[in-house]
Amino acid sequence: MLRLAAFALTSALAAAATGPLPPLPLGRLLAAPPDRLTITVSDTGNRRADGEYRLECHPVGGNHPEAEQACARLDEFTKAGKDPFAADTKRGMCTMVDGGPATARVTGTWQGRTVDTTFRRKNGCEISRWNDLEPVLPPARS
């Protein structure tokens, strides 16, 4: 017990001797971290569209071929109060149209929330979900 008290006193004295830590600039305290997503696309029927892309927004960056337009599209969802990555939970009727084998997995963070979702084109509802997210996701041929 005595050793613990001595350690605490020594630590407090050492911290006081070095002085207080400098304050962080106000902008650093208020600024949110940039939104960062990794988008992995395969089997679109367009080899140039398949691959892994990094997309950063606020500020725009990464190697996504249409980063500015993709960030703008995601911001449209946010301004409308919609989650662009949410799965369609409505149990409505979906056309049984096969949109091809294209898949896209999106992981990372958006608006401070973790994103980990997959997009497919297996029916009309999923095709619509994919198309709504273009140009974040590339156009896919069926």
Keywords:
142 residues, Subtilisin Inhibitor, five-stranded antiparallel beta sheet, 31% helix, globular
List the helices and strands and how they pair.
Blueprint: H1 2-18, H2 26-30, E1 35-42, E2 51-57, E3 61-62, H3 67-79, E4 103-110, E5 113-120, H4 124-132
Describe this structure in words.
There is one protein chain. The chain is α+β, with helices and mostly antiparallel strands and 142 residues long. It has a single domain, classed as Subtilisin inhibitor-like (Subtilisin Inhibitor, 2-Layer Sandwich). Helices cover 31% and strands 23% of the residues. It contains 4 helices and 5 strands; from the N terminus they run H-H-E-E-E-H-E-E-H. It has helices at residues 2-18, 26-30, 67-79, 124-132, and strands spanning 35-42, 51-57, 61-62, 103-110, 113-120. Strands 3-2-1-4-5 form a 5-stranded antiparallel β-sheet, with helices on one face. It is globular. It starts with a helix and ends in a 10-residue tail after the last helix. 19% of the residues are buried. The model is unreliable at 1-29 (pLDDT under 50).
- Counted by DSSP, the helix tally is 4
Unreliable stretches, pLDDT < 50, 5 or more residues?
Answer: 1-29
The CATH class label is Alpha Beta
State the secondary-structure class. Answer: alpha+beta
End-to-end distance, in Å?
72 Å
Mean pLDDT across every amino acid position: 82
Number of strands: 5
Q: What is the domain total for the residues?
A: 1
Instruction: Provide the CATH architecture.
Output: 2-Layer Sandwich
CATH homologous superfamily heading: Subtilisin inhibitor-like
At the third CATH level, what is the topology name? Subtilisin Inhibitor
> Roughly how many Å is the radius of gyration?
23 Å
Please state the overall shape, judged from the principal axes of the Cα atoms: globular
What's the helical proportion of residues?
25-40%
- The main sheet orders its strands as 3-2-1-4-5
Largest beta sheet, briefly?
Answer: 5 strands, antiparallel
Strand composition percent: 15-25%
What string gives the helices and strands in order?
Answer: HHEEEHEEH
